[in-house]
Design goal:
Number of strands: 7
Largest sheet: 5 strands, parallel
Radius of gyration: 15 Å
Shape: globular
CATH class: Alpha Beta
CATH architecture: 3-Layer(aba) Sandwich
Structural class: alpha/beta
Length: 166
């Protein structure tokens, strides 16, 4: 059984600072196997070379944008079911509808609060890998929505129920 903290993720954004912010959140979740790409073309090459538990991508990027990357992932013969979470600075709700219609598993508008990623990443990984264990994952805020991070020195708390799991 796979522990979600052992998942390999691909983070795609043309802004290196944003990739760093996302990587910091993933580090707090205990996810350390993270590959980065500065655009959709580089991401597609990496995606074709290895399996990822989740792809987190910006919507607007040079060469190949997030929708183009998503469409390429969804048309891939292998790993087409890999969850894709799209981030964007565009607050136009129609962009979110477009992303979800194209097959995105989630959509977050930037700037975002880190709890959005804390909630979405484990949910999408668990959905993609139903046999995944969340052992060693605990609530690190103690208040409000569950924010989980791997900490072997503390007992695990059960994952928060969401509308998807109810």
């Amino acid at each position: 059984m796979m522990n979600i903290n052992q998942a390999r993720l691909l983070v795609v954004d043309d802004n290196a600072s944003m990739r760093g912010v996302i990587r910091s959140v993933l580090d707090e979740l205990g996810i350390v196997e993270v590959d980065e790409a500065e655009d959709g073309e580089v991401a597609l090459r990496l995606f074709s070379e290895g399996a990822y538990g989740l792809v987190i991508t910006d919507l607007y990027m040079p060469r190949l944008d997030g929708i183009g990357l998503l469409q390429a992932i969804r048309s891939a013969s292998e790993r087409q079911d890999t969850p894709v979470l799209i981030l964007t600075g565009d607050d136009n709700p129609m962009r979110g509808v477009e992303a979800l219609t194209a097959g995105a598993d989630g959509f977050i508008v930037k700037p975002f609060i880190t709890s959005s990623l804390f909630d979405q990443v484990p949910r999408l990984l668990a959905r993609a890998h139903p046999s995944a264990s969340e052992s060693g994952v605990r609530d690190i805020r103690g208040v409000g929505p569950s924010v989980r991070s791997a900490r072997p020195d503390e007992p695990a708390l059960p994952a928060r129920r969401t509308r998807d799991s109810a």
